[in-house]
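Quick sanity check, Protein unc-93 homolog B1:
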Amino acid sequence: MEAEPPLYPVAGAAGAQGDEDQFGVPDGPEAPLDELVGAYPNYNEQEEERRYYRRKRLGVLKNVLAASAGGMLTYGVYLGLLQMQLILHYDETYREVKYGNMGLPDIDSKMLMGINVTPIVALLYTPVLIRFFGTKWMMFLAVGIYALFVSTNYWERYYTLVPSAVALGLAIVPLWASMGNYITRMAQKYYEYSHYKEQDERGPEQRPPRGSHAPYLLVFQAVFYSFFHLSFACAQLPMIYFLNHYLYDLNHTLSNVQNCGTNSQGILTGFNKTVLRTLPRSRNLIVVESVLMAVAFLAMLLVLGLCGAAYRPTEEIDLRSVGWGNIFQLPFKHVRDFRLRHLVPFFIYSGFEVLFACTGLALGYGVCSVGLERLAYVLVAYSLGASAASLLGLLGLWLPRPAPLVAGAGLHLLLTVSLFFWAPAPRVLQHIWVLYAAAVFWGVGSALNKTGLSTLLGILYEDKERQDFIFTIYHWWQAMAIFAVYLGSSLPMKAKLTVLLVTLVAAAVSYLWMEQKLRRGVVPRQPRIPRPQHKVRGYRYLEEDNSDESDTEGERGGRGDCAEEEAPTAGPGPGPKPAGLCRRPCPYEQALGGDGPEEQ
């Protein structure tokens, strides 16, 4: 079998003419220098450019898949460990034998308080952290804090569990805000790499047309949330393969339970205080926790090694250039935009519905009637339904923009009204198929909600390359809703369903009102982000573009930095003025012998 000829001939290799080519120029070691280091004679610039941008597009896809898998593993490990830990600590025999009078219920309550209360202040520091560390490194740091929480369960004490829970609560909003910003930025970059020829024709100063990257954003968000919702199924693996072997059946755990579903009060009133038939060995617990720790470490490696940077160093805006005060104020100034104000009820409902799926539906309707040993399968049904339905968001490529959100809200509305009238009997398995169906359909509505909201934010604010402020506001309101659910955990089920229903109707009406305003041409009020005042002439500040600037700000800015830095003069000078000089050249440009990037 003959070897394939190389794509380009190797410089210095002997050809068909022997040691001389057809023009009589010697070949081999005695060839001229230009012949050895010059361009290949068969070099195809267009083909090389196409291959280069194809590699760039594959790199973007790799970033999206790595971030999605990292988020899935991180949240799956966190939920799985927390669920197993709370079940073990609930059993009074386990507490007395393993820990004596250490007060595990009090430690668990303070741990849950740390996780749910600390995100209240996240609006104050999340944008600062994302701008200081960068989007990718903020993701890596937050995933590392989740891994720290897992590691503290090797030694369960007050001084290990509670501080790690507080740190975890501080990292929740920064993690998901940076994730949302990262996926949106990847969609923008994929559009740039797919339409590089159009970008060359427009020029570097002009931005792509509105709505250009929306199809890629919709696909990437559908992929991300399809992975994310699988985390609820991954979290049940320790329960299915380990803890279920130690649990009592429903006849023991539900012996004192009288009311379930819409007639229940609080969380599992009357549930038996002993749920473990036999206590798991400490060695087995260490093995399970070690597996979870290894998965958390794998998630850190995925984010660190496979997720590329969201922005080039010259695109990153340093805190010293924009200012700490401006970074701190901008999340509050963004609330002036009527689009965000109209979406706040949907942000709140997004936090309500996911907590209701994990506590109200899974516990109040599931465990209360079919036993603790089937909790994992109810959540797996919810997870698989949500993961598969996340891909339904791709229908937004052909349907109107409000379709996914309105469809998800309508499905949840029907389910909420139905749950008002359903009170399953304890210890009866005939209705278990209804429970699984409700979990699957609730997951479908959750997927349409999450995918639709994130895609909508990316489309509404597509004129901004950096959307960390927008996703910070979204996930902060979501965290506030989760905190409200934590405070109201002892309410009757009917009260919870009423709050859920009122919030859902308010969210749908407010969103449709916002769409009506946009169709009428109402211009939203966006805060003007100050231009960076660069004090250092380094490689970070050679970029003239402001990635925080929107299209309208760019039009108002006119000449931009040149107009700001131009010194006022009383009149025309006697000599000719230098053309196009907006700033002094940096030392690197002086070394090249030029007068700056805008030298004429």
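Posting the structure with no commentary besides this: The first helix runs from residue 33 to 37.
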